[in-house]
Design brief:
- By secondary structure, the chain is α+β, with helices and mostly antiparallel strands.
- The chain has a single domain (4-133), classed as Roll (2,3-Dihydroxybiphenyl 1,2-Dioxygenase, domain 1).
- Helix content is 22%, strand content 43%.
- The protein has three helices and eight strands; from the N terminus they run βαβββαβαβββ.
- An eight-stranded mixed β-sheet has the order 2-3-4-1-5-8-7-6.
- The longest helix is centred in the first third of the chain and has 11 residues, at 15-25.
- The chain starts with a strand and ends with a strand.
- Keywords: Metal-binding.
- InterPro entries: Glyas_Bleomycin-R_OHBP_Dase, MeMalonyl-CoA_epimerase, MMCE/EMCE_epimerase, VOC_core.
- This is VOC family protein.
- Belongs to the methylmalonyl-CoA epimerase family.
């Protein structure tokens, strides 16, 4: 199944402190802002468009959220790379057939209707990779 780049997720301590760089230096525009308090997510999101590419700034809202843990362990920066697929369920099955493992508990639909799941780090050489689709 074809996979295309969808977005980069960037872990930040503060969206408000980080936004000026993206807006003033990179010329980004804010496409959307929202929060997710779903257990295991707990982030504020600023969705940006930069030169035709999408970036999501991710600010943790809970000290124990995955993004907060990521920042404590690795610092601010690229959290994940997301690839869009036509059919997420089919893409997961194809990847599993090829031996790819997933963090099954991450399978969900976000606040904006994107279905997503994260691949296990052992299958991706240490990079957090998201597969996603937009069924609606």
């Amino acid at each position: 199944m074809e996979k295309t780049f969808d977005h980069l997720g960037i872990a930040v301590r503060s969206i408000n402190d980080t936004l000026p760089f993206y807006l003033n230096v990179l010329g980004a525009r804010v496409v959307d802002r929202y929060s997710s308090e779903t257990k295991g997510v707990e982030v504020h999101v600023a969705a940006l468009e930069v030169g035709g590419m999408h970036v999501e700034l991710l600010e943790p809202t809970n000290r124990e959220s995955p993004v907060a843990r990521f920042i404590r362990q690795r610092g601010q920066g690229v959290h994940h790379v997301a690839y869009r697929v036509e059919n997420l369920d089919q893409a997961i099955e194809e990847a599993k057939t090829g031996g790819v493992r997933f963090y099954e508990e991450t399978l969900r639909t976000n606040a904006r209707g994107r279905r997503l799941i994260y691949m296990h780090l052992a299958s991706t050489s240490g990079t957090i990779v998201e597969l996603c689709d937009y069924p609606n």
